[in-house]
Amino acid sequence: SDGSIRLHQMTSEYPLMQWNDSTKGQPIIALQWALTRPAVFFALDASSNIYIWDLLENDLLPVAKQTIPSEKVVTMTLLGEPEKANGLLGIVLAKESGEIDIQYVKKKWALP
């Protein structure tokens, strides 16, 4: 609810990494690991900002932020085929109006 993200290992109650105020205080409403690249995850905050984290490139801050200005995004999920090496990765955005938007991710964050 405060924009903090914690990375846990299943065998410990303490986080391996913790990023406080990663969304400038906005609640995170969706977070998902990339299906095609294990070190990348995406977070959606309550202000319709998508943050892309690539832990191999930078483990302190997101490597990119994209604002969806047209309408409030209420949730997101990722689509892709992890068994294929084509690096195709998409973000499915559900908007408040019920509209669904699919955006494809740059290859550098999608390739295995």
UniProtKB/TrEMBL annotation:
Molecular-function annotations in GO: dynein heavy chain binding; dynein light chain binding
SUPFAM superfamilies: WD40 repeat-like (SSF50978)
Classification via InterPro entries: DYNC2I1, WD40_repeat_dom_sf
GO cellular component: cilium; cytoplasmic dynein complex
GO biological process, any: intraciliary transport
Protein name: WDR60 protein
